[in-house]
Amino acid sequence: MPVRVLLVEDNQVFREALELLLGLREDVVVVGSVADGGEAVPAAHAHRPDVVLVDYRLPVLDGVEATRALREALPDVAVVCLTASATPREREALLEAGAVVCLSKDQELDEIVAAIRRAAGSVAA
């Protein structure tokens, strides 16, 4: 059964590209995507993803705030951070807020999908 993923990414080009690439995979299905951290929890309630892929730099709520809000509202949902430029301290804050892992946007798609699948398994277990 494919992992249900919600994307929270303010860069429209990157979000659409990721949606397209993940859409080509049989092991992942993108159930929704939003452009700011404030929409993360309502979208997660609406779409019931297994994993939420969250950027660090977001309008309204940043990645740390969005991750914390998601983990509080939906404890069964795993959060994977995908960021272009988080510092080690920012990555640590994301993990402390409840992200399972923090990945770089320039990682291979297979690595990102593997992390999504591991994250989904970590919550389901």
Entry summary:
The chain has helices at 12-23, 40-47, 63-73, 88-97, 109-124, and strands at residues 3-8, 28-34, 51-54, 78-83, 101-104.
List the helices and strands and how they pair.
Elements: E1 3-8, H1 12-23, E2 28-34, H2 40-47, E3 51-54, H3 63-73, E4 78-83, H4 88-97, E5 101-104, H5 109-124
Parallel strand pairs: 1-2, 1-3, 3-4, 4-5
What report would you give on this structure?
- The structure is a single chain.
- The protein has a 5-stranded parallel sheet with strand order 2-1-3-4-5, with helices on both faces.
- It is an alpha/beta fold and 125 residues long.
- The longest helix has 16 residues.
- The protein contains 5 helices and 5 strands; from the N terminus they run βαβαβαβαβα.
Q: What is the number of helical segments per DSSP (H or I, 4+ residues)? A: 5
SS-based class: alpha/beta
Percent of residues in beta strands: 15-25%
Approximate helicity band: 40-55%
What's the SSE pattern? Answer: EHEHEHEHEH
Low-confidence stretches: none
How many angstroms does the end-to-end distance come to? Answer: 15 Å
Topology, number of strands = 5
Shape: globular
Cα-atom radius of gyration: 13 Å
Main sheet overview: 5 strands, parallel
Mean pLDDT: 93
The neighbouring-strand order within the major sheet is 2-1-3-4-5
Give short descriptive properties of this protein.
single chain; 125 residues; globular; alpha/beta
